[in-house]
TrEMBL record:
It comes from Chloroflexus aurantiacus (strain ATCC 29366 / DSM 635 / J-10-fl). Pfam families: DUF922 (PF06037), eCIS_core (PF13699). It comes from the Bacteria. Residues 26-103 form the eCIS core domain. This is eCIS core domain-containing protein. InterPro entries: DUF922, eCIS_core_dom.
Amino acid sequence: MRSAIRQLQSQSQYVAHSGVRQHTHPLDPATSTRFAPRFGYDLSTVRIHHDCSAAVTARSLGAAAYTIGRDVFFAPGQYAPHTPAGQRLLAHELTHVVQQAEGTHGQSLHALEAEAEQHANTATTPAPIHRLRPLPEPAQPLLQCYRVPGSLRCHDVVDWLNANSPYAPEWAETRCTYDFNGGVQTRSETLRDGRVRVTARGTPSATVGVDCPIDRPEWEPTDRPNRDAEVAAWQAMRATLDAHEAEHRRIGQRWRAILEGRFRAVSFTVTGSDAADAMQQAQDRLTALQQQWQADAQAAQDAIDPFRGAVLRCP
């Protein structure tokens, strides 16, 4: 997991949010003009922090930069919007600003970080000009930053994970999503009273795909005398954690086959006041079935959680 995302639950958790608007400034006009068309939003409400307070917090998080709502905080020397490296980092963080403004509900950390990296990788490429929209106010500010702080000692890592994991009490998550490809065959008939009956049946060509990204923590201890032993302890813990998450992926693959079988075996009849009404009912019925199937698949995943078998045995 390249980012740790959690809701800000109190002012005492790493970020003194009460001072978040102090010592800030907006993007300069040239930088705003460069990045606004890339996202389609007016970025004038974004606030940049790179003072001593922001630097201290960034270092405590082991981050080059991190984002909370419309506020972007930078470690010392990291805010450099007129250099290629600085533009890349800023593009990454502005993506998180937009993600929070638009809402991140239901999106995996992997997907959020992949989108941010996509914008970062094209930061120096001119973007087409679009009509800019006002940036929405985020419904719930989130902390988005990189990895477990490397400055933490091994014995402090567990406390940090328990306090910051978005999947607490667990440290990782595998979230499987299913795509239903193809449709069903429908046959309609008009009844004597003018109503329309639609019969829907599955087809042998219908398929279901599955994607099971794993979000898990990364930690690279800073150089110190026992670093190798700490890395070995972390890797041993991760091996256990990864084995559990791999089981989630196997469950996802098994349920992919189950859902595909259900999709192909669909058979139901609906009756509507006219053809349009009957077809809408058929679509709603199919959607409800697919949602129930996915809930069944998720229940199978939930059955092996919460997992507390990953233990970090510090040297």
